[in-house]
Amino acid sequence: MKALITGASSGIGKDMAIYLSQKNIDLILVARNELALKKVKEQCNSKVKIIIMDLSIRKNVYDLYDKVKNENINILINNAGYGLFGNFIDTDLDRELNMIELNVVAPHILTKLFLKDFKDKENCYILNVASSAGFMAGPKLSTYYSTKNYLLKETLAIYEELRHLDSKVNISVLCPGPTDTNFNNVAGGNFNTKSATSSYVAKYGIDKMFQKKLIIIPTIKMKFAIFMTRFLPTKLLLRINYHIQNVKILKK
Fold it and tell me: In the 3-class helix/strand/coil scheme, how is 188-229 assigned residue by residue?
């Protein structure tokens, strides 16, 4: 088998690459940071090809597909993404649009193109890395939450379409809570709760993907938190999330 992983230079993407390599799955790793990707490659046991590319540029997403479409890929992992803390009225518009390109447009394009290739194959998997944020709205982190809502809901819709087509392609969405990655440094905030390790989230996500789990939520704590949101009034939930995000910024 062979997997393509975007955002593979650090965090969950890096640990997914290492874990899949331990399963003797060959890898194509994509990110902007060449040095970091080379370090990930050194930690992998299987065959690894690295591609240096900024997927927030739409043309590059199509170019990536053209580069790898004949590589006999069986697993697509859309992991690349970032966040941005701050009031919506104050955050930089260009950076938000760049985030939407990376968090939404890139996985949308890659999922569609690879799904067309996968539909007649056996043992093919798509894993979209969303977030627990995908179940809620996030004041002070509004655009990031919105992108993860998009990725979560689109994955669910595609799953149902594939089920009606009797397709053998499996699609899953990984929705971790706070995870010890470089996310906060990029977004401009700090988690104020205990974070899961990226290696745990990566292993859990891959294992559940192979078990064909649709929605993958690491940690009991996060599963309980998401379950409880069903019973809270929308405005109360917004106040709670505003406080959580505001504390993250205050602790910078």
Answer: CCCCCCCCEEHHHHHHHHHHHHHCCCCEECCCHHHHHHHHHH
pLDDT tens readout for residues 58-84: 999 999 999 999 999 999 999 999 999
Coil vs helix vs strand at 49: strand
- In our burial notation (b when 16+ CB lie closer than 10 A, e otherwise), range 168-203 reads ebbbbbbbbbbbbbebbeebebbbeeebbebbbbbb
CATH code of residue 123? 3.40.50.720
Domain range for 43: 2-250
The yes-or-no verdict on residue 183 having pLDDT over 60 is: no
- Position 121 scores a pLDDT of 87
Closest of 248, 12, 28 to residue 130, by C-alpha: 12
**Total domains in the fold of the chain:** 1
Tokens describing residue 40: 């990930």
| Phi and psi at residue 162, to the nearest 5° | -65, -35
User: Which residues are CB-neighbours of 130 under 8 A, at least 6 positions away?
Assistant: 148, 151, 152, 155, 173, 174, 175
pTM for the full model? 0.90
What local confidence, expressed as pLDDT, does residue 188 receive? 47
What the block records as the tokens of 246 is 């505001």
Burial class from Cβ neighbours inside 10 Å (0-12, 13-18, 19+) for residue 226 reads middle
Task: Supply 51's token pair.
Answer: 């591609």
* Axis crossing angle, helix 106-118 with helix 142-164, rounded to the nearest 10: 10
C-alpha triplet 93, 78, 226: angle, nearest 5°: 80
Is residue 69 within 8 Å of 117, Cβ to Cβ? Answer: yes
